[in-house]
């Protein structure tokens, strides 16, 4: 299971890499912007992607969107879990500080202060 966890942990890094972002931008330009330009300028019509290429690229974009959403949801769940652990640790620390203050107050009230170090 550790190998799978390591693999899944690397996916967000790969998807946010410069190469990956460049590929996403290229696909967007090729599938969306270039097709719109071809409708405006009919001379570009021969260079537009075929409907099969557009369908494949659209499916690719849809899959990547779903993958991005699942990564975001997983990241949110992981952050929430860590935040709960952090709050629990903070609460325990606060309780220990309160106990320490109580002990200090008891020492001061009873005048059982330790001798100064010489």
Q: How would you characterize this protein structure?
A:
With 118 residues, this protein is mainly α. It has one domain. Helix content is 82%, strand content 0%. The chain has helices at 2-15, 18-40, 51-110. It is rod-shaped. The two termini are 58 Å apart.
Pick out its properties:
single chain, 118 residues, mainly alpha, 3 helices
SSE arrangement:
Blueprint: H1 2-15, H2 18-40, H3 51-110
Class from secondary-structure proportions: mainly alpha
Binned strand content: under 5%
Please describe the biggest sheet, giving its number of strands, its sense, and whether it closes into a barrel.
none
* Helix and strand element order: HHH
Radius of gyration: 30 Å
Number of helices: 3
> How far from one another are the termini?
58 Å
| DSSP helix fraction | over 70%
Overall pLDDT level: 77
Number of domains: 1
Give the uncertain stretches in residue-range form: none
Work out the number of β strands. 0
Tertiary shape: rod-shaped
Briefly say what this structure is.
This protein is mostly helical.
């Amino acid at each position: 299971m550790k190998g799978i966890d390591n693999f899944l942990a690397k996916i967000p890094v790969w998807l946010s890499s410069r190469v990956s972002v460049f590929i996403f931008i290229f696909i967007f330009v090729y599938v969306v912007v270039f097709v719109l330009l071809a409708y405006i300028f009919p001379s570009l019509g021969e260079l537009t992607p075929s409907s099969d290429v557009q369908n494949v690229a659209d499916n690719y974009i849809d899959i990547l969107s779903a993958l991005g959403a699942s990564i975001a949801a997983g990241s949110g769940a992981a952050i929430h879990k860590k935040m709960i652990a952090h709050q629990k640790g903070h609460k325990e620390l606060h309780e220990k500080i309160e106990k320490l203050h109580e002990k200090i107050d008891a020492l001061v009230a009873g005048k059982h202060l330790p001798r100064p170090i010489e």
